[in-house]
Amino acid sequence: MKNYGEELAYWYLRFNGFFVLDNFVYHRTPNNRDGDADLLAIRLPYVKEVIGGRTDDWDEKLFSYLEEYEIAGVLCEVKTGPRANPSSAFKERKLKHALNRIGFSNLEIEKMLSKHENRCLLESNGKKFLKLVVSEYEIERTTAFLTFSLEYVEDFIYNRLEAYRRQKYNARHFFPSSLLQYMMYRKDKELSERWR
């Protein structure tokens, strides 16, 4: 079960054209214990959706790092506690598992990992992989991963719900998320009251 922060980050990535896997398990190895990645996502080129899937629907801030017409992966760590230290989420062994899982070749992985230490964006052969942290509390800025606030992610989702108010609200029960359904209800109610 995703917590509220993970769920908001999940829908943020989904609304930006990604296929998202939550709680991706890192299995135990002789030197490491079991663990998981909050979200692992991949986005294929030329993604389109009838509702909310055009070029101007994608988040400009996210797509200042990614290209719409390239394969892109994201490893996303979500922090809702005040003492969050997300750097352990992007250790080399975890990145390797994540990159393997979404289909990067061993050669691409070696190239990407050889210079991942202080980079939020890894690249190889026109494919990109972003290390992203979504946090409720402020996290010290670093070049090792990109940080978005939970509020930023929530605002993006609400803006999308407003842009496609009728379509999203009318289809709300088909979305497998009670949090998102509630957000659709709140946005519809807010806009209804605004126009009275």
Quick recap:
The protein is of the alpha/beta class and 196 residues long. Helices cover 34% and strands 21% of the residues. The longest helix is centred in the C-terminal third of the chain and has 17 residues.
List the helices and strands and how they pair.
Blueprint: H1 4-14, E1 19-26, E2 35-43, E3 72-79, H2 92-101, H3 106-113, E4 121-124, E5 127-135, E6 146-149, H4 150-163, H5 165-170, H6 178-194
Parallel strand pairs: 3-5, 5-6
Antiparallel strand pairs: 1-2, 2-3, 4-5
Protein model, in words:
The protein has 196 residues and is an alpha/beta fold. It has a single domain (4-150), classed as Trna Endonuclease, Chain: A, domain 1 (3-Layer(aba) Sandwich). It has helices spanning 4-14, 92-101, 106-113, 150-163, 165-170, 178-194, and strands at residues 19-26, 35-43, 72-79, 121-124, 127-135, 146-149. The radius of gyration is 17 Å and the shape is globular. The model has no long low-confidence stretch (mean pLDDT 90).
